Amino acid sequence: MKELKAKLLSVVRLTGTVISEDQIQILDRGVPHKPAGLPRGKMGIYSFVYKDEFLKIGKVGPNSDARFRSQHYVPTSSQSNLAKSILNDPDFKCFNLTEDIVGDWIKQNIRRIDFMIDASLGIFVLNLIEAFLHLKFKPKYEGYKSQR
Predict the structure, then answer these.
(1) Contact between residue 58 and residue 131 where contact means Cβ atoms under 8 Å apart
(2) Nearest partner of 64 among 27, 119, 22, judged by Cα
(3) Domain residue spans in the chain?
(4) Please, are residues 38 and 120 in contact by the beta-carbon 8 Å criterion?
């Protein structure tokens, strides 16, 4: 994680943006994991990893705690979320997951890595870091298959 953080700081600095090490935190919540809220004054990037494959990477601004904390565990909570993607993925059919249990299954079986970014850095820094992570890890449920 130290190497990844150094790369993120470097790519942000390449734009001429002043950023200190303490303005980005990487929190590996592990497997199993407990979702946590978005701290005051922070923006966030969440990522979900299953068997070394990134499934989803997304961002939230400082006022999007529900998206950060809970929506990815409830398939009916939003138009696009991890739970819904897993339920629609043939690779996960063998687990016999349903809308009622998929959230708990995610918490027990999928690694979550959160990136906390000082809100003072602004939306463009958040967008840049998310784009960097998308390009580096190519998450399964991001983008369109026709675009790859």
Answers:
(1) no
(2) 119
(3) 2-137
(4) no
Q: What is the distance of C-alpha 50 from the center of its chain?
A: 12
DSSP 17-41: ----GGGEEEEEEESS----PPPTT
Q: pLDDT band for 143, please (50, 70, 90 cuts).
A: confident
User: Looking at the chain, how many residues does it have?
Assistant: 148
Provide CB contacts within 8 A for 135, sequence distance 6+. Answer: none
Mean pLDDT, rounded, for 36-61: 96
Residue range 90-137, pLDDT digits in tens: 999 999 999 999 999 999 999 999 999 999 999 999 999 999 999 999
Q: Report in angstroms the alpha-carbon separations of 65 from 31, 35, 38, 96.
A: 21, 11, 5, 30
Concatenated DSSP letters of 87-137 = HT-GGGGGG---TTTHHHHHHHH-EEEEEEEEGGG-HHHHHHHHHHHHHHH
Confidence tier at 12 by pLDDT (50, 70, 90)? very high
- Virtual torsion, Cα 26, 71, 79, 92, nearest 10 deg: 80
Position 112, amino acid: R
